[in-house]
Write a structure and sequence with these properties.
alpha+beta, Arc Repressor Mutant, subunit A, Gyrase A, domain 2, 2 domains, two-stranded antiparallel sheet, about 45% helix, elongated, disordered C terminus
Length: about 170
């Protein structure tokens, strides 16, 4: 009989394969797809797996963390759709305001970019605090975010994301 860790590992590998192959919008749907592959799962085990794998729920279904450290078009669209304002709070903190309920999705994206300016993020419902090591890194981060937003095709107000705070 396989060990619990082996079962969990096999299930998590299958979860990543399934969401890469097709859109999955609900955890119950994922449970059914796993069972069709002969893998026993419950909604609660799938929920734990999704969290452990860093899978984000987007409007069109679950999305696995990118295999590469760069952003894909889907993630850039996420920024364009949800970011409303970029602000500063002191020399080491950027505040990203998002649409209500979108802060965690955007924070996950920011955490996964691998951008050296970002030390870490903390998100609420519609705000993300992004810590940087220095004021110079804060400026680079804000410039990088604005550049990403300016090149996002789904952002109808491209380049018009508000930025308040000291200009350095």
């Amino acid at each position: 009989m396989p060990a619990e860790a082996d079962i969990r590992s096999r299930r998590r590998e299958a979860v990543l394969e399934i969401i890469a192959e097709r859109p999955v919008e609900r955890q119950e749907q994922l449970v059914e797809l796993l069972r069709a592959r002969g893998i026993e799962a419950t909604q609660s085990s799938v929920s734990r797996d999704l969290k452990a794998l860093g899978v984000a729920k987007l409007e069109d279904g679950y999305a696995a963390p990118g295999r590469s450290r760069g952003a894909n078009d889907r993630e850039l669209t996420l920024l364009g759709e949800f970011v409303r304002q970029i602000d500063t709070a002191g020399a080491h903190l950027a505040v990203v305001k998002t649409a209500t309920g979108a802060a965690q999705r955007v924070a996950v994206y920011l955490d996964r970019t691998g951008w050296p300016e970002i030390v870490g993020t903390l998100s609420g419902d519609d705000s993300i605090f992004v810590a940087t090591r220095s004021a110079a890194e804060q400026r680079r981060l804000i410039a990088r975010l604005r550049a990403q937003l300016d090149t996002t095709p789904s952002n109808p107000e491209s380049g018009r994301v508000g930025h308040r705070g000291p200009t350095r």
